[in-house]
Amino acid sequence: MSRLAERLEIGTFRDVQTLQAGDDTVVRATGHHRLLDGTPVVLHYIWFITRRNGKVTHLQDYINPQAAPRRGGGEGVLVDGRS
């Protein structure tokens, strides 16, 4: 997945939800993107963000790995919100 950006055109993020607790923030979102061949891809994200003194000190992110394009092509891609 480290080379996902080489095969994906980043689109929009929808259904963004945030939860704030002190210096910690959790963000959940749905990304609506396209493979370079135009195939639609829907990916689900979650970010854990910690801030201290107004600066980000830790960022941890997750993506639905079943939806990510696999090496060698687009097979295994989540196309319309369903696997």
| Mean pLDDT level | 80
What is the H/E string?
Answer: EEEE
Give the domain tally.
1
Specify the CATH architecture. Roll
**Fraction of helical residues:** under 10%
**Name of the level-1 CATH class:** Alpha Beta
Round the Cα radius of gyration to an integer and report it.
Answer: 14 Å
Structural class of the helix and strand makeup? mainly beta
Q: Which of globular, elongated, flat, extended, rod-shaped describes the shape?
A: elongated
Descriptive account of the structure:
This protein has 83 residues and is mostly beta strands. It has a single domain, classed as Nuclear Transport Factor 2, Chain: A (Roll), CATH 3.10.450. Helix content is 0%, strand content 58%. The chain has a four-stranded antiparallel β-sheet with strand order 1-2-3-4, with no helix packed on it.
TL;DR of this structure?
By secondary structure, the protein is mainly β. 0% of the residues lie in helices and 58% in strands. The C terminus is likely disordered.
